[in-house]
Amino acid sequence: MKRMLLCVCMIFTGFAAHAAEYSLDDLYRLALERSNTVQIASENKYIAEREKDRAMAVLIPKFSAFGSYTKYVDEQENIQPDNSTSWGLRLDQSLSVSRKELTALKIAKASIVKSGYDLDSVKEEYLLTVASAYFNVLKAKKSEDIAKANVERLTKYRDAAQTRLRVGEITKTVLLRAEAELAGAQSESIRAENALKLARAVLARTVRIEGDYDIIESKGTLYESAVPGCFMADDSGSAQSLECLKETALQERHELKAAELEKQIAEKQVLYTKGSYWPDISVEGVYSRREDHPATSFASDKNIYGLIRLNYPFFEGGLRKAEVRQSEARFRQAEHSFNDLRDSVNVEVDNAYLNLNTETGVLERLRAEVEYARDNYNAVTKQFEYGLADSLDVMDANNLLVTSERQLANAQYDYELAILQLRRATGKLLKTVVMNVHSSLQ
């Protein structure tokens, strides 16, 4: 019975200790759900929506009630009552002749759309951060695997050196060199293990993952092409057109859309401030009632009246002129910011495009280098076993293999990240992520 209970406890402990596994799409979904950065941007959009409600409220007449009670201390007979109660209802509305309230409503509506673009931009940037942390974990895992494989190879080489030393085929310096190389590989394995822990901690902090977890590596390239529809006309489809990528970025980048709206909002703001040069019209309707105690025969107990007021300040110390000039300067700022951002986006696309081309070329060469280095190491170790190669040849072949394997692993993940960076530069990353996440959930 005790043995059965122990087995059951071990089974449940194994289930509890099983780490959750996440693919890149899973991390994307969790990041969008849990990110404080995304939530802050979402609240900005909510604030913009409430600002529109405020602008709409200005256009709606205000309905209010009022009342008062007056107690007179000095009683004067037949002149004033002991106390008086008054109350009433008021309906009033104040608008500018320039209709600047409608302009403010248009500005508020445009700000909502701009906040949506800002939110999408924040999401894209955050998703790229998640992807970068994800690939850093994969790099660290691969580095750890390479370091462990290197320790295994050097352990076998050290054992072979000990055997050959006992039979007198080599000198003790060869064994000492093997021991030193093995110790260095073991220390490198420890560094790789700690680097993996750090990379996992950074990813967990970025996506807000609690507890133990593991990640699932995507097989092959994450996407068939960086930006579909931008292939070279005379190519088989592996290369992308730089001009098409730039045009796509100018049309799709959320930052550019937000900057364009910011420019339109600044232009409307100029119209709004110029509306201060026009008079304001106020319309007011009031119903009031008064009750005196004791009542007097000549006091009016009920009043209903309407009021139209026109207000125009002729001199306000130059305030309106200063506000108009400020709004015009902000409009010019918005124009310059848009032009500067457009140039920056073009440079960003250039950088991402060239980076992807570089990683593509490097990846192909490194794959061949790893194959050559592995064949070279196998050949040299065989020669060492038969006394046809010395220890320096083995160490050189092993170092070449380790270096090329690390470079290939980094290049593979840098290539995957370069694809996402090009999608980010052209404004296509968020759409692709949302589409992939939805398809994975179906």
Q: TL;DR?
A:
The protein has 442 residues and is α+β, with helices and mostly antiparallel strands. The chain has a single domain (26-71, 82-441), classed as Outer membrane efflux proteins (OEP) (Up-down Bundle). The protein contains ten helices and six strands, in the order H-E-H-H-E-E-H-H-E-H-H-E-E-H-H-H.
Description:
This protein is of the alpha+beta class and 442 residues long. The protein has a single domain, classed as Outer membrane efflux proteins (OEP) (Up-down Bundle), CATH 1.20.1600. The chain has 10 helices and 6 strands, in the order αβααββααβααββααα. The longest helix has 67 residues, at 100-166. It is elongated and about 135 Å long. Residues 5-17 and 233-238 have low confidence and may be disordered.
The termini sit apart by 45 Å
Quote the CATH topology: Outer membrane efflux proteins (OEP)
Enumerate the strands of the largest sheet in spatial order, edge to edge or round the barrel.
Answer: 2-3-5-6
Going by helix content, strand content and strand pairing, the class is: alpha+beta
Which class in CATH terms?
Mainly Alpha
Tell me, what's the shape? elongated
CATH superfamily: Outer membrane efflux proteins (OEP)
Question: In DSSP terms, counting alpha (H) and pi (I) runs of 4 or more, how many helices?
Answer: 10
Helix content: 55-70%
Whole-number tally of structural domains = 1
The mean pLDDT is 86
Please give the CATH architecture: Up-down Bundle
Uncertain runs are 5-17, 233-238
Gyration radius over CA:
38 Å
Number of strands: 6
The profile of the biggest β sheet is: 4 strands, antiparallel
What portion of residues belong to β-strands?
5-15%
Task: Tell me the series of helices and strands, N- to C-terminal.
Answer: HEHHEEHHEHHEEHHH
